[in-house]
Specification:
The complex is a heterodimer of chains A (about 290) and B (about 170). Chain A is mainly α and about 290 residues long. Chain A contains 15 helices and no strands. Chain A has one domain. In chain B, strands 1-2-3-7-6-5-4 form a seven-stranded antiparallel sheet. In chain B, a hairpin with a 2-residue loop joins β2 and β3. The longest helix of chain B is centred in the N-terminal third of the chain and has 14 residues. Chain B starts with a helix and ends in a 6-residue tail after the last helix. In chain B, about 30% of the residues are buried. Classes of the chains: A mainly alpha (about 290), B alpha+beta (about 170). Chains A and B meet through α1, α2, α3, α4 and α14 of A and α1, α2, β1, β2 and β3 of B.
């Protein structure tokens, strides 16, 4: 039996390394994100109404909508969870690779794990494709609605905006530097279709992206291209630099100046911000629909 | 590797934090909804009319730019309901929705106690922050906002193409 959305939301931690890292990134999107892990609090955040009877009514309707599989909310939540279940392992591979190069502790892994910049770039592109997929599922759009997704980013708020900020900071700028967009584009251009097809997260979300593997790869590129301008501008305007991230995250994780890629891989390995904020996004959306339907 | 050890130590530290027990007030609703999803009620539908698709409702919303408001659809292409947000200077002002409440007796019943009308359609307040009108005894037109009062929300209800909704063909 599938867990209800209220159980999914309330199973999220009030305090974890993920919530602390997200809290440290608040400077990028001031005040946008609160770690709401109670279903009644999320309902009241959506409605702005503290009436208990109304809260109960909206909650019951939201749960009924969650279990209506044709509306796509369960699949959207699944996509957010897949991102972190896959990237945890990818993070371990990158970490092993860097350790092999630098410390020669695990040097036998150097031959079988990809170079960290490439791994990181592909992971970043796939995560943005997952965000696109969840967006399309939540809105009822076809899976290739890249233009709608790109234009929606400007209006993203709350958990969505926090997740985008974390993606820009932790998956792009910290490991890849200010030139992240070009690196990600180059990596997606260069990746073999068979390699992409076997990517731990991509192969999970691939069913939601239309076309054959070539079309899916082009979709990945088109998605980065369409959203890239906004995301690059977002990073610049909000002062997202390796130095600023290092300073804020450094409160929770010790980051050495010359080991930013190692830090990014360790954060990827030990946090699940996509899943955490993704469940919150889906809860907010299904509650919003319930409020429209009661 | 010292770095990784620190990261993982931090993870263990934070993982140890306790939280409140899960709420139980929605467990019954979840059990019912889950059971219905697993084996839908076998009774034949009471009519062959289907809920209007969101794509067919979007054209009845107030246009983008009315009163200097930006209109952004957020849930617009699924059966039965379409939702858009109104924003001004990047701040959310209200949420607009049209919902096909076909055969949703709980949703329709609240209009029986309506004491006021907008453009001839019954209107009710839902909680403190939502105003709903019922068109053709079937379509709920809703404006929700914690900052606009009931009267202001009624004004926005009138900006929908209510006459257009009233003419929606059966079965659309």
């Amino acid at each position: 039996m599938t867990d209800s959305i209220h159980q999914r939301l309330e199973s999220l931690p009030e305090s974890s390394l993920t919530t602390h890292v997200l809290g440290a990134l608040d400077y990028i999107v001031p005040g946008e994100w609160q770690n709401i892990v109670r279903f009644d609090q999320m309902i009241q955040s959506v409605t702005g109404d503290s009436d208990e009877a109304l809260t109960q009514q909206v909650g019951e309707k939201a749960i009924a909508l969650w279990f209506d599989e044709s509306l796509g909310y369960q699949r959207a939540a699944q996509v957010f969870q897949w991102v972190d279940s896959g990237s945890t392992v990818a993070g371990a591979a990158a970490l092993a690779n860097m350790a092999g190069t630098r410390f020669e502790v695990l040097s036998f892994l150097t031959d079988v794990t990809p170079k960290s910049d490439t791994t990181q770039s592909i992971d970043a592109a796939v995560k943005l494709a997952a965000e696109l997929t969840a967006f399309c599922l939540s809105n009822g759009f076809p899976g290739d609605s890249v233009g709608d997704f790109a234009s929606s980013l400007v209006n993203a708020g709350k958990e969505e905006k926090m997740r985008l900020a974390a993606w820009v900071a932790l998956d792009c700028v910290l490991p890849l530097g200010p030139d992240f967009l070009r690196k990600v584009m180059d990596a997606v251009h260069a990746v073999e279709e068979s390699e992409l097809a076997n990517h731990r997260v991509f192969r999970l979300i691939a069913d939601h992206l239309p076309g054959d593997i070539g079309a899916k790869k082009n979709l990945l590129l088109g998605n980065i291209e369409s959203a890239g301008g906004y995301l690059n501008g977002f990073a610049n305007e909000q002062g997202v630099t390796q130095g600023s991230i290092q300073q804020r995250i450094g409160e929770y994780i010790d980051i050495a100046d010359d080991k930013l890629d190692l830090a990014a891989a360790a954060i990827d390995l030990s946090t699940n911000y996509f899943e955490h904020t993704g469940i919150q996004t889906v809860a907010r959306r299904v509650i919003g629909r319930a409020y429209a339907e009661i | 590797m010292q770095f990784l050890a620190l990261a993982l130590a931090a993870l263990l530290l934070f993982s140890a934090c306790k939280k409140e027990p899960l709420s139980t007030r929605w467990d019954q609703a979840a059990a019912t909804a889950s059971a219905n999803a697993a084996s839908p009620p076998s009774a034949a539908p009471t009519s062959t009319v289907v809920k209007t698709h969101g794509d067919d409702l979007n054209k009845f919303f107030p246009a983008d730019g009315v009163d200097g408001m930006k209109r952004v659809f957020t849930d617009e292409s699924k059966k039965g309901t379409s939702i858009a947000k109104l924003t001004k200077d990047g701040k959310e002002v209200a949420t607009l929705a049209i919902n096909d409440a076909l055969e949703d007796t709980a949703a329709l019943k609240k209009f029986e106690s309506s004491t006021e009308k907008v453009a001839g359609y019954p209107v009710v307040k839902v909680g403190g922050n939502q105003t709903a009108a019922l068109v053709r005894a079937r379509y709920q037109v809703k404006v929700s906002s914690p900052t606009l009062d009931h009267e202001a929300r009624k004004t926005w209800v009138q900006k929908f193409d209510l006459a257009g909704i009233n003419k929606l063909a059966e079965g659309k």
